[in-house]
Design goal:
Mean pLDDT is about 85; it is low at about 1-30. The protein is built from 13 helices and twelve strands. It folds into three domains: about 30-120, Orthogonal Bundle (Arc Repressor Mutant, subunit A); about 120-190 and about 300-329, D-Maltodextrin-Binding Protein, domain 2; about 195-300, D-Maltodextrin-Binding Protein, domain 2 (3-Layer(aba) Sandwich), CATH 3.40.190.290. α2 packs across α3 (about 50-55) and α6 (about 135-150) crosses α13. By secondary structure, the chain is of the alpha/beta class. About 40% of the residues lie in helices and about 20% in strands. The protein starts with 5 loop residues before the first helix and ends with a helix.
Length: about 325
């Protein structure tokens, strides 16, 4: 098969003279540029669409499709299944994209290490986290870190617990911060802290003076309950099952902030890990009362990375920041 040059195929990386300035939060520049086909493969797999990937890469979709077809010819097997609305990785594609992402991660690590040797204070940290840490704990850790390392920027994604580990394992993120992750051979725990589930009520609520509560006692008031995508819901459901209780919630949401707002404006009780209510308690707007149910007392907040991976310098250093913050909880 005749080989065309990269200009004919549509390169991802423009020459330096025509490169547009990078906005804050744009992709971190790799000191060692990976082969373009690795970037193409990764983008198509992430977007599930040739067209969307081409738009993200700023190249023509026909050029991107041609490169993927060329790669499939070289591999000797289809890497994507063509669907009516997009593409999906084939079995061979799953294997190939794993190789691609390991290589991209290693190249980024190399760039980070070279920058470290040069004494450059820059880099990026990609972290996926549960919503309970989004209001105060994680932003506070980032602000402290950037105070010492202003050249490091962060990509933070907040998601449901079920999606966080997937992002970690496929190297979409460097770190995850979540509650009670299931054991997985590809996940290495860096640090963990006890994080009991609490009942959160508005200051002045009839329950506000209690030192602890059971779910049965909370039933006397309207309940704001998380939906099944949030980590706390599984703990609540297990505790209810053990106590043979059934709750008919007045308010159900996948938003921690929405549940807290509902509780602040009414006589409702919502449930949140201690870390998720710290700011509201500090402001004097809410009171956090530990739940006495065993399943709620034993919850943990966990910082984790992919097992076997060497983190980039910025991510590894930030992990130490978060570890120290967890120790202070």
């Amino acid at each position: 098969m005749a080989k065309r040059n990269d200009r004919a195929r549509g390169a991802v990386y423009p020459v330096r003279k025509s490169a547009s300035p990078r906005a804050p939060g744009a992709a971190h520049k790799l000191l060692v540029r990976p082969p373009r086909i690795l970037l193409y493969m990764d983008a198509v797999a992430r977007h599930g669409s040739i067209r969307k990937a081409a738009e993200a890469l700023h190249i023509a979709s026909s050029a991107l499709n041609r490169r993927i077809l060329d790669l499939e010819d070289e591999v000797g097997m289809p890497l994507f299944e063509r669907l009516p609305r997009g593409v999906r990785l084939s079995a061979a594609g799953e294997l190939f994209v794993g190789y691609v992402r390991r290589n991209l991660a290693e190249l980024e690590l190399l760039g980070s290490q070279i920058e470290h040797l040069q004494g450059l204070v820059r880099g990026r940290v990609r972290i996926a986290a549960t919503e309970s840490v989004a209001g105060d704990f994680l932003p506070s850790a980032i602000v402290r870190f950037q105070g010492r390392h202003p050249g490091v920027y962060f990509n933070v994604s907040i998601g449901a617990p079920g999606t966080l580990l997937d992002s970690l394992i496929d190297d979409s993120v460097d770190l995850v911060l979540t509650h009670n992750p299931p054991e997985h051979r590809d996940v290495a725990v860096i640090a963990a802290a006890s994080q009991p589930l609490c009942a959160l009520v508005a200051r002045g609520h009839p329950l506000a003076g209690r030192e602890s509560l059971t779910l049965r006692e909370c039933q006397e008031y309207p309940i704001a309950l998380a939906d099944a995508t949030l980590a706390g819901r599984a703990l609540i459901d297990r505790a209810l099952g053990k106590a043979s209780l059934r709750i008919e919630p007045a308010f159900v949401s996948n938003s921690v902030e929405a549940m807290k707002a509902f509780a602040r404006m009414s006589r409702a009780v919502c449930f949140q890990f201690k870390v998720g209510g710290m700011r509201d308690v500090a402001l004097g707007e809410m009171v956090a009362i530990p739940l006495a149910d065993a399943q709620s007392r034993n919850a943990q907040l966990v910082l984790a990375m992919r097992a076997g991976r060497v983190l980039p310098i910025a991510a590894a250093t930030f992990a130490e920041e978060v570890k120290a913050a967890l120790d202070r909880l």
